[in-house]
Amino acid sequence: MITVHHLENSRSQRVLWLLEELGLPFEVRRYERNPKTMLAPRALKAVHPLGKSPVIEDEGRIIAETGAIIEYLVEKADGRLGPPASRDDVLRYRHFLHYAEGSMMPPLFGLLVVGRLGLLGRPARGPLLKMFGEHLAWLDAELASRPWFAGEAFSAADVMMSFPLEAARARAGLDGRYPNLLDWLERIHARPAYAAALAKGGPYAYA
């Protein structure tokens, strides 16, 4: 049985969703953020020294980092929702699997920080939103020609892209200017496995 150490309103919601999509058995240990600092509780340090989420336990292994967990679970499920057959789709799959954290999350985190700085953060907010808007425009154009990020079929790359785009809709300018991205969000939220993951993970601010 896979154990998911799941922090509220975090990247770990993607792991629950993928597990539901793959039909792998799992249990959830849910952690709540400190209401003042919004940081993860110290209890997570007993699981992994960095005290971050997601972390999974499986067959005596402790695995951290969302991308690494996604790849591990796809492999465990005999490649389901993994790299497609087409070479071009494989390259897109790999790109978005890493792009979600490597390119999208840094400016989103920057926006979160400057938002908490109040007046001091205002000068930085405009440039960050402009930079992030370039990402949104490109992603919207990408989905104009195909339904899913890797190609014609839903894959784990879509799971990885869910959190940054959900966070973008909440605080980084994802709105009606990007209809293909909004349509994609509606379609992932309508998936039965997504709803099942929400039920198991508890309240989630970005759904």
UniProtKB/TrEMBL annotation:
Q: Which SUPFAM superfamilies match?
A: GST C-terminal domain-like, Thioredoxin-like
Q: What class of enzyme is it?
A: transferase
Entry GO MF terms: glutathione transferase activity; peroxidase activity
What's the Enzyme Commission number for this chain?
Answer: 2.5.1.18
Q: Which UniProt keywords apply?
A: Transferase
Determine the domain of life of the protein's source.
Bacteria
Per its UniProt record, what InterPro entries does this chain match? Glutathione-S-Trfase_C-like (IPR010987), Glutathione-S-Trfase_C_sf (IPR036282), Glutathione_S-Trfase (IPR040079), Glutathione_S-Trfase_N (IPR004045), Thioredoxin-like_sf (IPR036249)
Cellular component aspect of the GO annotation: cytoplasm
Q: Which reaction does it catalyse?
A: RX + glutathione = an S-substituted glutathione + a halide anion + H(+)
Domain called GST N-terminal: residue spans? 1-81
Q: Name one Pfam family in it.
A: GST_C_2
The answer to whether keyword Transferase applies is yes
Q: What sequence ranges are listed for the domain GST C-terminal? A: 86-207
Q: Which PANTHER family match?
A: GLUTATHIONE S-TRANSFERASE 1, GLUTATHIONE S-TRANSFERASE-RELATED
Q: What is this protein called?
A: glutathione transferase
Tell me which species this is from.
Allosphingosinicella indica
